[in-house]
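Lab notebook: predicted structure, single chain.

Context: the supervisor wants predicted structures on file for every construct in the current expression panel, including those that have not yet been purified. This is the next one on the list. No modifications to the sequence; it matches the entry in the shared construct table.
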Amino acid sequence: MQFLDDSLLPETQEKLVITVAPYGPEWEPADFPEDIPVTMEAQAQKALDCYNAGATVLHIHVRELDGTGSKRLSKFNELLAMLREVVPDMILQVGGSISFAPEGDGAEAKWLSDEARHMLADLKPAPDQVTIAVNTTQMNIMDLFQSLEMGHKTCSLTLSNKGQSCKMYFQDGQVNHAVFGNGEIKGDDAVYKTMGWTDGSFAIDFTQSSQEQTTTKSTQGLLMEGLRLLDESNRGAEENVLDS
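Prediction complete. Output recorded below exactly as produced.
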């Protein structure tokens, strides 16, 4: 690679989006006491420092005062509210691989299962993005769809697996539009293409929605038909193996 004179100056470079994760959940504050913020004020200041340095997306985790990672919904809400004031132009991205612990009497009723409970958490103010790496030991596609439906969520959901992707839009928990790949498949068939995926990743953006209607069934209807088609495909594959 060759660079011309002044090619690395900011004003001559192409625009890019920088994502930062300054809260370092895999580290203890004692490991890097000068870099890992613990208090809400310190975390907000770290976000502002990153923004001033050119970052656009802020990946968020929250710590308790003892430095451990927090699973309290109230702590996430507190930090999100503070960040909206301190860095209003940043895209706030929550690391959804955490699961929220119930708080208060009777809170267990809010959580359907360990796999789904973080999807049912009602973050206020809502983050701009939620990112989660999933496989069959964490959350399958049926769990994910049911969580969005039961939460009456309006958002976009992007599923990715081995170089393929499908973007779906939910309105009040119902899939109203889906696009597979570059748009070669849309609607119900786009959703069905993902039913056989057993691993991959997904991203949820609560700021996105679509008024386009390409699906013809409810979320539950899409799941049931997709599973029926998948079952038929698996049976056909088994019969082919037996015949050979």
